[in-house]
Amino acid sequence: MEYDSIIIGMGVAGISAAIYAKRAGNNVLMIEKMRPGGILNIIDNIENYPGFKSISGPDLSYQLFEQVTSLEIPYKIEEVIDISLEGNLKIVKTNKATYKATNILIATGRSPILLGLPNEEKLVGKGISTCALCDGSLYQGKEVAVVGGGNSALQEALYLSKIVKKVYLIHRREEFRGEENLVEKIKNQENIEIIYNSQVTELQEENGVLNKIVLNDEKTLEISALFIYIGYAPKTDFAKNLGITNPVGYIEVNENFETKVEGIYAAGDIIIKKVYQIVTAAAEGATAAIRFSRKKTTNKLTKTE
Ligand SMILES: Cc1cc2nc3c(=O)[nH]c(=O)nc-3n(C[C@H](O)[C@H](O)[C@H](O)COP(=O)(O)OP(=O)(O)OC[C@H]3O[C@@H](n4cnc5c(N)ncnc54)[C@H](O)[C@@H]3O)c2cc1C
User: Fold this and answer.
1) pTM, whole model, 2 decimals?
2) How far apart are CA 170 and CA 165, in angstroms?
3) Mind listing the domains of the chain with CATH numbers?
């Protein structure tokens, strides 16, 4: 079957695009490798998305997904592994099947970066986590550490401080990059100890589980878990052959969220931009879908004239 548009990724960017595309009469398919809502599923509390004074990430994901089902937008839970071109058509290959479309929108977001320490990967799930919402409750009454200095690190340190006994917040600089109101909340939270100008240099384990971290000044902290929020890497391996990514994998787009390949669009955290937020991801997905829907109508009119 040939689709008007295939949307890869069911985060807020992809779902926003699908809502606009479907309502504009597109024959659209969504492809998601894990779960609808994307990174929203790991966010404890969102307070800056218009329309919701406060909402948890999983609740917002659920509401987005309800909109997908109520509009009867078809979707597949499959991983896209390759995109190629066949004339005007885009061929999207997943781990299970191959699909064709005139337009595709890449909205595959980013995944958290680890510190790059020797035994780190094998300790993921054994004391190392990038998701406080998923794993925080395992450490009730214990001491944990958070690494990072941006909004994600601050938000998640605050969340953890309500569950655990103590949070060490380790930041490599002297000032945080996050929003001022979050920084204030962190400073006023009694069970958060901020350690500035510091980096984790060693992870120590006992019986295969993290139990201590060593900092660059040789200080050792005995902790039950380390939550890492130091940045994100884009997920575009499947699109490398198209020549639309920069050297680190982000996709370059114009103001209509078009890449340099005709009919291939990108939106959300995967693109090169200044603001990586829910509201921007939603707006970009919608703008891209409006663009390819209008192009489809114009092409049809031109053909019948
Ligand atoms: C801890 C944390 C807290 C945050 N807090 C806020 C906040 O309070 N307010 C705010 O506005 N923003 C916040 N953000 C940022 C915001 O969540 C993101 O900017 C936004 O959700 C990105 O949406 P997206 O659709 O671009 O990507 P994602 O949500 O990452 O969605 C991408 C989707 O693509 C799927 N995918 C990836 N590769 C493939 C593939 N090969 N095949 C098929 N599917 C694939 C993924 O599984 C995922 O579901 C926060 C982020 C984090 C990490």
Assistant:
1) 0.89
2) 16
3) 2-111+232-304 (3.50.50.60), 114-228 (3.50.50.60)
Spans in the chain with pLDDT lower than 70:
297, 299-305
31/80 Cα distance (integer angstroms)? 7
160 lines ligand 1 (CB under 6 A): no
* 3-state percent helix, strand, coil for the chain, nearest multiple of 5: 30, 30, 40
Q: Is 212 exposed, middle or buried (0-12, 13-18, 19+ CB in 10 A)?
A: middle
3-class DSSP state of 35: coil
For a ligand 1 pocket test, name from 95, 104, 108, 287 the mutation site with the most ligand atoms within 8 angstroms of its C-beta: 108
List the one residue out of 203, 251, 228, 243 whose CA is nearest residue 129: 228
Ligand 1 pocket, residue 153 CB under 6 Å? no
44 is catalytic: no
What is the separation of C-alpha 222 from the centre of its chain, rounded to a whole number of angstroms?
Answer: 30
